[in-house]
């Protein structure tokens, strides 16, 4: 709920009867989005600014919550709506649906967060068999009146009464075919009148009732339908995709109608104050003459660029440009605007902070700083790590040999390759089978959302930058090309015909470039992103478009680095990864997994160590491993000279270093059947059987391995200490930290630490070098988190291993559950997101928070970090900042994301503290 404490908003202990459920547009403001929804709050703000907004009122999200909780509207709501409707009628000088000169209204959804096309809208409410005559007379245009009436029945039938929309579409197509025309604007009044009769018959047949003639019944049913649409399948799916809470509810906006379908001097459009695809300033948007707003976003007719409005209606164009400048300066951001022109008079129907592509977000943020509209801290809130990660994806190689077959509007950038599919069901089905797909449609609608999520990219033959496909794709970060008119899409026959007659069948590979709008046959090769080249040091800010983006990213990263408190380290196991991480801005290594050093050629040595029967055999294996380990660490310390390197001692379950039991059994059986020598294999098989575990992840691993196999951990500690001494002798600055894995009790840590301290002392004496090797532990078991205060007595640092901590807290085996039931859990809303992707704040997070607090109570200077995969997740980084960790550690590729989010976390928490 908004922090603006309105006395009419339900607070704890407030009765529903005392709550105000309806606000006139003159009563609200843009800061009441929790209560009035984004659309209602912004309509109120534009009204306050004196902009031309049609009068109306907003039913609050509180009313929606009561309705969704109880199944009934609040008792006071009808009377409040009646009072506001009466005031609206007095202001407009006409009554809702009256026969001679009817007031018509739209009923639109409006949640706090933009959910384009996901919830319901009904236009032209108030039209009936009687009032349509009055509208025709008042407008002096029979065609307009009957067109508006058929639109009402079509939208109301589908949205409110649940009639299959295809029935109306088929009837409309049949009417155009009978008239031998291709667009609905060519239908005349008599044609539309017949279509109204047909539409009413469809409603009667499908619903068993007549289309309602009472205008108040129309409005009340439409309001309920908008409330219900909050829990519609597509709305719930969109919220899960965008991580929007499910308990917010939607507001409902009742607005007096203005008409863009009154002829060539009327129209409707969508405008952006900057290009949402690139961020460049200019005139961007779409306009459609003689149309209502839904025609533009539905993409059913191709629009003209907004710039052409200057030739069509210069007065309205000039006024719109002035309003756009006013709104951008007022909101201090890219604004997305819906407008209608009614016989030369401009009306503003909506504004909101516009969705944009990742590249546009970075460009716009820096532009607004340069214009003095926002400061650096605010700029950081305008971009995010997910957008930065998107910019680091590869792009198409323009020098490759390609076969371009079409070009549309570059609606949402990216390089997408996949098999052509022509409906959402197939897109989802194939995607779940591991296929990459491109969803191809004439135009998308909200029912296509699940297919759009499943696809690598979206291609449509109709629509522009403000069509449903474009807006939703930009919001999701999906590659999208819209309005490729030269491509003939036949969804029924599941094919697309390209210029020259070539046919793309379902399953054929195609490539689409959302940055240029180009469409190619086959698979186009990709090249690294310029942003990755920048982080690698191969590209520097410059003048062309790619370099302009790099400059924006460079500046935002500099902002973040200046603001952030959290340090960012890398998960890296060798010098090559460490060097790359350092180029990406890593401030050390937070996790070096030494088990990765033992694979390959060294696996046999480890195998011999584990299976050794005598102390002599064990010492021989350790002696062979020591110089190899030392060399690993020397290279790592050299790559990360002057920065901390946290080395985790051997952690994996034993089975990872032993032969597969089934494969070994087969080898022994074959040898026996052939009467071949197999003493070594048999001995090995017996040992594998002896060491076999039903659940290796909870078995002999981590600190348990070090305690059971004498000399294993001390060999590793000696290798670390000798490598550090060698680097110091070479005038280097090694900063090694030794991490003991899978500790569950302080006694385990104390035993290993005593042994380690003794080894370090021996190396110091032998080399004459003073070594400062911090020793700490991973917190990855619930018991470790719960006894963190005790464990801190023996640990100089904690590193939270959130991968294993998540598994052990939830009782999940990650390798199994993600493939088996996580999809169902996500679809049912049990998870908003996988707990392995974003930290579970309530469960795993609460253990991290309490362990950090307990550890520092015991040891105030205890260093705290995280080295699970959550260290590179944007939302999780904010949590780690909030609970006071010192650093996060993640894979090299995620380091820029973590740096950016650490800066954003510092800014947003400072803003919260200030408020």
UniProtKB/TrEMBL annotation:
Give residue ranges for domain PEP-utilising enzyme mobile.
Answer: 435-517
Q: Which organism is it from?
A: Streptomyces prasinosporus
In this chain the PEP-utilising enzyme C-terminal domain maps to: 551-903
Q: Does the keyword Metal-binding apply?
A: yes
Reactions catalysed: pyruvate + phosphate + ATP = phosphoenolpyruvate + AMP + diphosphate + H(+)
User: What's the cofactor?
Assistant: Mg(2+)
Its EC number(s): 2.7.9.1
* Superkingdom of source: Bacteria
Cell membrane among the record's keywords?
Answer: no
Question: Which UniProt keywords are listed?
Answer: ATP-binding, Kinase, Magnesium, Metal-binding, Nucleotide-binding, Pyruvate, Transferase
Instruction: Give the main EC class.
Output: transferase
Gene encoding the protein: ppdK_3
User: Record's family?
Assistant: Belongs to the PEP-utilizing enzyme family.
Xref: PANTHER family: PHOSPHOENOLPYRUVATE DIKINASE-RELATED, PYRUVATE, PHOSPHATE DIKINASE 1, CHLOROPLASTIC
Residue span(s) of domain Pyruvate phosphate dikinase AMP/ATP-binding:
77-302, 309-359
Entry's Pfam families? Answer: PEP-utilizers, PEP-utilizers_C, PPDK_N
Question: What's the protein name?
Answer: Pyruvate, phosphate dikinase
Any coiled-coil ranges, and where?
none
